[in-house]
Amino acid sequence: MYQRMQFNEEVESENDTPLRKASLLLRRQLSRRRSNAPEMALRRSLLNSASGSSDTHGDAGIPLQTMRGAAGEHHNGAGAAVGNSSNNTGLADDGAGTPGPAFGSGSGSNYRTVHIGNRESNAQYKYRHNRVSTAKYNSLTFLPKFLLEQFSKYANVFFLFTGCIQQINGVSPTSRWTTIVPLAVVLAATAAKELAEDLKRHRSDSEMNKSTARVLIGTSFVEKAWRDVEVGDILRVQNKEALPADLVLLSSSEPEGMCYIETSNLDGETNLKVKQGLPETAKFLTPADLADLRGHIKSELPNDSLYTFEGTLVSEGGRIGYKELSLDPTQVLLRGAILRNTDWIYAVAVFTGHETKLMRNATAAPIKRTSVEKTTNRQIIFLFMILILLAVMSALGSQIMTSRNGSQLAYLYLPAGEGAKTFVKNILTFIILYNNLIPISLIVTMEVVKFQQAQLINADMDMYDESSDTAALARTSSLVEELGQVEYIFSDKTGTLTCNIMEFRQCSIGGVMYSDMVEAGKRARIVDGEVVGQYDFTQLKEHISSSERGALLFEFFQLLATCHTVIPEHREADNGSIEYQAASPDEGALVKGAALIDFVFHTRKPRSIAVDVMGVDKEYEVLNINEFNSTRKRMSAVLRCPDGSIKMYCKGADTVILERLSENNNPYVQKTLRHLEEYATEGLRTLCIAMRDIGEDEYRKWSVMHARASTTLVNRQQELDRVAELIERDLVLLGATAIEDKLQDGVPQTIYTLAQAGIKIWVLTGDRQETAINIGYSCKLIQEDFSLIICNETTHWETKEFLQKKLAAIREGHGSNIDFESLGLIIDGRSLDFALEKDIELLFLELATLCKAVICCRVSPLQKALVVKLVKRRSKAILLAIGDGANDVSMIQAAHVGVGISGQEGLQAARSADFAIAQFRYLRKLLLVHGAWSYHRLSKMILFSFYKNITLYITQFWYALFNLFSGQTVYESWSITFYTVFFTALPPFAIGVFDQFLNARSLDRYPEMYKMGQKGVFFNVKAFWGWAVNAFFHSVIIYFLGTIIWVNDAESDGLVGGHWVYGVVIYTAVLVTVLLKAALITNMWTKWTVVAIPGSLALWFIFLPIYAFIAPKLRTSTEYDGITSHIYPNSRFWLAIILLPVLCMVRDYGYKYLKRMYFTEPYHIVQEIQKFNIPDYRPRMERFKKAVHKVRLLQRLRRTRGYAFSQNEGGQEKIIRAYDTTMQKPSGY
Fold first, then answer.
1. 628 annotated binding-site participant
2. Which of 467, 636, 939, 1101 has the smallest set of CB atoms within 10 Å of its CB?
3. Any idea where the P-type ATPase C-terminal domain is (predicted)?
4. What is the pLDDT of residues 288-303, one digit of tens each?
């Protein structure tokens, strides 16, 4: 650090131009900031060692130092590995995981060597390619990962076991292929679905990898695909293009190698970041210049720290000579960022593909399994145990019967002395006989049903966004039922809740309100000599020219047009229109707003700016800028106006402006405060606007103090703040501005409705705390009556103590002035680092789960994922994560369900998510309607599938009691197969795809219905075994009463029906019973339900005579030869298939009646409202709630009036002093 500072001093003394000095001061300030990082890292490591805590976060394998963005230790000036996490596995890429930390032959253990523009020299190090994959599988990993996922389902393991033992000769009572072939078909169908879904991911990755980059080859730039970019390549990136790799900036079209990048895709911040190349490389402005650049870069090893970088550029001759130049984060541009307001840049690729910091923050696409699947898996284990028990009982029965009646069974070949072997073989035989207690068709039925539910989501026109021509997309169908059980939503802010667009909407000037659009009922009128209501901007222009308030209005907009750090860009290709480069989106919106009122800022020079004031060009000398920071909450500019007067213009939070107002000559304070409160109720971002006239003598004295403070080497920023305080006093309040951080359509209503559904929403954003809180109020995440717990601690122990105190206060119910009914937790990234450590994480989680809303500010992508993983690991709730940028991918993949928004930040999140939607508001229907439907349908389908199989196959066990446990089946073999494949296959599909327990309108109107999914009302252990016991009960009635009815099967001609006629009667009674059960549980009948239920029964009656006629002739089955004449004419057959199902259904119908009439569930009431179209009288309650809402809002606004201002802290004055927009920019060629 000392060498770097010394070198900068030498350069400054040699190059004493104001432009160069501004550049060097900027770099020095940023370097000094970063130099504090090792001290913080050391302090934290000491704290960790003192507390005995591990350096890593549990099983995440992520060093805490990396998470905090620590700069790591210094390594001989060669660029140390910063927070390197060698355990962090990147996304799957051609089957290879993220490489270890040692890269490059000849590189030191703490750095890597990158030869600039020399592919041949870099080839020896075998650096990673620039291809990126977010897919779940590749050609090498598909088979093992797919088989692992499928055989984690116990049903598949069971059927594989059954299929294997069927291959043993003399064991299986059925064909050896009746299990293994259907299992192979099921796995093949599932594999086809998985491949089809993963192919979509591969296509999305391919599109991104084919994006065009310009690579320097020789002395000219050649277009290459992103995938072909290599480490060491010199790239040209143009305005509004995404960066293809992690780059070191060399030069740009802007003065002194500066450029602007938008990092909302990385950290969620809306303000632009300023980066700057080294002074030595900033003069390389053409390809020929770059071709003369000789040397290499020693950089840190690949790591996941977004905010740190250490390296050295070693020049080996050429125009720079032989030098070593220090590199820091000021020169680093990360993949995922977008170049803004800069025509072009030249940069060197240092990290590519999965070694980039963005991808190092990502995790491998996980295998996700739903809670319904897990519950089903567990119940299959119990069913398997019951099956084993039945098989053992049957085998014991066979042994007992054989030993007792051995003398009567001499005609059978029963080898002596093989009792144990026979017993084991009998167990296997009965396992095969009863194996369909667990339906083999269940898995494929679930997959098909889920696929169809996903198609319903894709085809829903209510979730189609016309403006972007984007429909909802279920990228995987495996998780549709999870959408109906979500308890926590983790959301990004920028681009997810907001549109990332700032617009100047309203202002208050001299106690009078002006707005861009005014509703008819709010138009301005004079009441008792005072203006009530709002004027529009057209009237505002007229008032400037003719009103007595003209001078005040003029001063207000003159301030907006001059008091800022915006840089204008003239776009010749667009009719000379002006595009404003603004590090702060708020400042950009204010300057654009002033331009709408004909105060057009159009030129910036190092010492002055020019504004077209209502058609007249005026030049203002910029004397000083007192910059914004989070402590000051304001910025001011000291200007010499065209008339020679000196004015100080100031804008900032109402709290800091009001306390600096003059005691006299401020008549508009109370009116302005009322207007601020009104703006805040509408969720607008507010700033107070004030000014002061300054005398020549006063300014001369103050400027000397300011110059001294700006050059001090001790506490420079504090000294500048102190000097600014001396002049920012006795202000005259002009008014206030109101900027809309435009929310996406329907966001407040969506969040409010989801909260009614019992869903807790956490916002995880990289944006500033004030901005995040302001948006929280705007989108109704935070209500006006909430008590906010704000955690901004700086050490491990302070964070722990803070959380313990707040948690203790809540438990005890007193102290802290907290409203225990409505709590909101606000925590910043630094405090969150500590809160996620092992000894604190449970405190943090307990406090956070007690709150109705949680906002985590200034968090990194990795922290987002760690928060989600913490809640996932420590609770049983279903989590959903939603975001739109690459910085949200880790969070999306960590949650049970990931939803990506196809927003302005690109498609990276949508590509990596399980579901993709165009707007946040579509989440409402996705969860409350499609989620609730999918959960209910799938639950009912699974329960019915088990029910129908248990009902049929338990009759096999009852039959074993009557055949001496011989292993004989009561049903013909192919009829058993067709039971699952044909005759009961359609009802589960009809229930799983088309049934609706409530329609979409009712589910949206009564979001409380969603809580049934969260509580697992429709599918749980109790429900599963309730259905299983019911199936046992039905099998008892059908088998034993059916046997009584058919005990004497002699007919009038003396013939008897025999075994197979008896089996057909029982089989038909079972089929009618399960189809009646399907009809009883169906809530909505469609044409497909009619085809599925009555149609299946008709199919059996048509199939039986045809099969009984054809099968014997083809010798495929002789059992049914001639039975038709013994069935259809027989009255006992019709008695059995009518009486037995009716007796079974009497209990079920009675249970349903009792439950609806005397044990009513909430959805039963809504079903009645839906059926009889009963009007809803809730609007009266809504009006009452709105009145209460208004009162609470005003109470809150007296404490805070919507202030929010987003801007980088420091360095802005140096940047604007370097610009002269009257000069022609270099083309770069």
1. yes
2. 467
3. 910-1160
4. 889 888 899 999 999 8
